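ugh ok fine here u go
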Amino acid sequence: MDKPPVTTFKTRLNESIQSIEHGRVINPNYEEIVVGSFSGKIIGFSPEPATLAVPEITDRAHEKQRIAEIEADLKKRVEDTEVEVKRLQGCLQREMDKVKERPALVIPQIDVNVQFSLDAKGSHYLLSIETKCPLEYITFACDVLLEMEEVDHTQCAIMLSPPVPEAGSLFLATCRIVLPDLHRVELCVRVAEGQCGTLQIYTIPKITPRTTQLSRVSIPPLCLHERVNTLGDAELRRPMNEVKITGTFTLPEIHSWVSFCFPEVPVKLTSDDITINFRSIFTGSVVTCSYTKGSAEFRTDSITTLFTIKDYIAKQATLSKTKIHVSTAIKEQSIVHVLELLDPVLERQFQLHQQVQLVDALREIQLQEQDVSFMSPEFADILARADDIKRDYQQQPKTLESLFGVIIGLYMTKLKLKGKNPDGKEAELRTQLTHYSLANLKSFFMES
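structure:
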């Protein structure tokens, strides 16, 4: 009993599991695991050996006769099954003919299970779409810019369409299902912070009559912040900027405003004084939200995040015609602090190009030499992480552009605080980032 469990069997259902139980169902001699899937399937997994029961032959003289009896029995079973299949096909055709003869078609209601979850490790969202019917197409429309790609390229293919800004659609795409009987699709969605919007999902299953189901997913302005229970001591000692908001708002109102800014905010209120912590999965900056009826305080080491919270809460208060008073306290050293947080990430992205060039050469040495213990620790580490390095290198242009966007946003916020004109400054900053050096970047920020 003290030994750790070991894997004896595994499989993939391609559906979400609704319930799981164990017991003796088919054979009283074996414990089974029974699983209920989203589409309604009941699947049993039994340790019973899957063998064909062949009667023991003790008299060799009757061996051929016994084999002939077994073959005849199997043939009869196959024939009976074929007859039953034809009978069911006839019943199905008759029911389909009845449906076609109906004067008015009843559009069926399909159940669509949509999950939009933040993946902190990959710095993106995982979008899961599941139905009880096989999928044929899924179309997307969003009023903010985003990127979408398949998690499994063998299941589906994404085709992008030109955006239609005048119609409020900055992202349009169609996902064509490749597999014939697929009920669930997983997609990777990358979106930048700073703008809020709604992703509209039109799910088209393989059913008659043709129908589609619309689902909506909200994208908050600070969508790349994950909720954490507590912050570390080092995080709490960071230079923190503050914004304090007072007014006539109620606790449910300020809670809904926070939900508008951040993902993963609990729906229900558990007390009269709420404190929620967030950490950016992209930059590592942190946010503490503390609020009650008529008062709210937000503390963060990123001035970009601070002003995003301030602007969007002010916008929501204006829409609800609620009077508020806002005061801010900015610490200049927090700007340098954020640049230092981003420095290791930027350095790693610039090193990827050199590491990718070494991977193939190191693998060739590994094939020729049985023992590669003579390699330096740096080369041994590159060889051990070769697959991860190549995968990350494919995303390097997108990752670098996202990092540049964060730094440019930080710089523009600083200029806004100083009341300076940002014209022409973005091009200068991009030149600094192309020839990156933390010391030079700090000097550029401090001189502005």
